[in-house]
Amino acid sequence: MPGVSARRLSHEERRQLAVNLTRVVKLYRSILDAYIIEFFTDNLWGTLPCSWQEALDGLNPPQLATLLLGMPREGEVARYRSVWPLTLLALKSTAYALAFTRTPGFQTPSEFLENPSQSSRLTAPFRKHVRPKKQHEIRRLGEGHLSRFMSLGLGLMVKSIEGDQRLVERAQRLDQELLQTLEKEEKRNPKVVQTGPRHPPHHVVRWVDPTTLCEELLLPLETSPQSRARLLLTGLHACGDLSVALLRHFCCCPEVVALASVGCCYMKLSDPGGYPLSQWVAGLPGYELPYRLREGACHALEEYAERLQKAGPSLRTHCYRAALETVIRCAQPELRRPGVQGIPRVHELKIEEYVQRGLQRVGLDPHLPLNVAALRAHQAQENRVVAFFSLALLLAPLVETLILLDRLLYLQEQGFHAELLPIFSPELSPRNLVLVATKGPLGEAFSLLETEDN
């Protein structure tokens, strides 16, 4: 997806981008703030301008991917069946123009050309227990699995902070398993495997408070008598406030000289406290990003566009869930948007069968009399549901851009230089923008990050 590069923007241009983003988000807040499961109960289709309805109504999923999301198949030419209203075309152009580009400096990760499940850039011991997505992230960021690669693969002294004791215990078992594997490899093939002392990650069970500096995080594993400790803070998909905590530690602690942070789970940011961080964004009218907007910013736009192109039956899930919501509200009006545990193989069920199972999942009588004709009428609007959801996904990157731009501006307000780059393939890893900051020149670091073979 096209977009703007943060690196090409001056400080003033970044501030102006924040102004533009807040204006656009405010203008289309009704789409961003909508819950797709309320498509029928809140008549979401009717909230769109009539001209938009006419343009989008009847488009099949591949057409939505090509014409609305701007993600055609390779070699496909976009062909509009009618003249779209200028307001809808303006929305599409604005979404492309204001969002940070998520396209990295390479087309397809060459590491998976031979085998889509195994990165050729990681040796077999470091691929064990690691999904392709994480293999790609570990190798690209060059840093659970990240700390293991940094310590046992790159020979760095690494401290890993984790709040869940069970995850720490599992990580320690995997550390020992990898150590044993590397020792066996070294005996069999000493010329191939790197020799020398190996230090597994030092694991610490600790919750990091985003508002309080964590001394345990900053204590060095070893100190040199000639110089003080120099620390790099990394967070590969640091959830919610953890990304904010890393930024604050970087700004306040002289021992921390560099930061590499890939955030995720924006809906878990404290409100207030996690956003906004910069004085500039906090002073803009319409800067607020409620929970629903931040949650939407975590959706995988590229993955959904691929699903649209394939036009598989799984796309009907949102329509089914929206139809279920109408039955729930009729049976128990005060019960709104309850969580429905996963229903296996939704696409193979008739809509009334899905509704019966859904009612049971939320504690209601699955044998309630159903208006099957009304449910079938809802099902007939499946493409409208998909179209509305696609509109929300088109806008979602603007919210992510505003959150990350706020972090860039915060670091600049603290006197530091920071940049943002798409480092992972968005098809493999949707949260692929890495925020890098140092207390020194950034040029060399970014020349490495911008190439595939880093």
Structure in words:
By secondary structure, the chain is α/β, with parallel strands linked by helices. The protein is 45% helix and 8% strand. It has 19 helices and 6 strands. It has helices at 11-27, 29-32, 50-56, 61-68, 86-98, 124-127, 132-141, 146-153, 165-188, 215-218, 241-252, 279-282, 291-296, 301-310, 317-331, 351-361, 372-379, 382-413, 443-449; strands at 159-162, 202-205, 231-239, 256-264, 417-422, 433-438. The strands form 2 sheets. A 4-stranded mixed sheet has the order 3-4-6-5, with helices on both faces. A two-stranded parallel ribbon has the order 1-2. Helix 9 (165-188) links the parallel strand 1 (159-162) and strand 2. The longest helix is centred in the last third of the chain and has 32 residues, at 382-413. The chain is globular, with a radius of gyration of 24 Å.
Mean pLDDT: 81
| Secondary-structure-derived class | alpha/beta
* DSSP summary: helix tally: 19
SSE pattern, N- to C-terminal: HHHHHHHHEHEHEHEHHHHHHHEEH
Q: What is the strand content?
A: 5-15%
**Topology, number of strands:** 6
Helix content: 40-55%
- The global form is globular
What is the topology, as strand order, of the major beta sheet?
Answer: 3-4-6-5
Return residue spans where pLDDT drops below 50 for at least 5 consecutive residues: 137-142, 443-454
Report the major sheet: 4 strands, mixed
Whole-angstrom Rg = 24 Å
**What is the distance, rounded to the nearest whole angstrom, between the alpha carbons of the first and last residues?**
23 Å
